[in-house]
Amino acid sequence: MNDIPDNQRLVDGLVRLLTVEQRASDIYAGREQKDGIGRVFGGQVLAQALQAAQCSLTDGKQAHSLHAYFLRGGREGTPIEYRIERDFDGRSFANRRVVASQANEDGTQSPILNLTASFQTVEEGLEHDDSPMPDVEGPETLKSDTVLRREMAERMGDKLGEAQRKLMLRPRPIEMRTLDKLHWMNSEPKPPHAHSWFRTVAPLPDDPALHRAVITYASDFTLLGTSALPHGLSWMRGELVGASLDHAIWFHREARADEWLLYSTDAPWSGKGRGFNRGRIFNASGELVASVAQEGMMRRRKAKG
Asked: 101 catalytic, yes or no?
């Protein structure tokens, strides 16, 4: 065990986190994030729910889309249960509904997420791709966001709470390299566009379903923050209160999450306490591999007193 590099340990931990355990027919349990703090990361619940749905398919169909609603914030330290409804099994397509729940102190269960996933038998079809990859700098010369978070924590000093500092400095299995200043890097209003490269920090097993789950996990990074950019505000600085409300992904072609992928996000609208965000994920060859959309609650934090 001591011979395994730290980065590989992080990625092995991510694989374990996203590997759900079957408890009964169409009932799965999701593992807890090691040293998790506060609210469960939404990308984790999305990815575990997708994995539970993928486990229920045995005929080779592959997930091509998912649509989810976040109902309540999940709590770290409490297992998450995933119950599946098999709404449709056709020759070409199949559909699964997943309800993610956590136990309350009185023993009852409260749903925290509803997810519907659609699956398709792989086939050839008419092809076009009218979504060119943005002409941006490659990841090789960019500074890792891990370094940027460390530098920011040093600059903020005592202004950061202990929980915020731990969250900011915690080693992550996903490395991101950002071309633009994200909401936590910037206090000046700017256009609602961002570009970040991401990949796991070590190789993943050759399992396409797992790579879809990891892409789903990573798709919740940076997305909601895009709608905060025109306002020059940040959750990290305690200026906003927010939460994801829904999340949708369309998988267009196979991609490896341990190779560089470009996440290009934009936010065409915010208002009424909500922000709407879109994302496109490209491989290094410039091919569109997935599209993402999310709306989230976004409110200016009120001063105490």
From this structure: no
In a domain, 179, yes or no: yes
Average pLDDT of the chain to the nearest whole number: 91
User: Any idea what the CATH number is for the domain that residue 229 is in?
Assistant: 2.40.160.210
Domain that holds residue 287: 6-122+146-300
The strand pairing partners of 117, in sequence order, are 66, 96
Q: What is the pLDDT of residue 50?
A: 98
**What are the pLDDT digits (tens) for 110-120?**
999 999 999 99
Phi, psi of 7 (to 5 degrees): -60, -40
Which entry of 44, 244, 264, 270 is annotated as an active-site residue?
A: 244
Q: Which of 216-220, 259-263, 290-294, 298-302 shows the lowest per-residue confidence on average (mean pLDDT)?
A: 298-302
Active-site residue, from 219, 220, 234, 270? 220
On whether residue 135 sits in a domain, the answer given is no
Question: Is residue 131 in a domain?
Answer: no
Q: Does residue 143 contact residue 177 with C-beta atoms inside 8 Å?
A: yes
The reply to whether 28 falls in a domain is yes
Residue 287's CB is within 10 A of a number of other CB atoms, namely 14
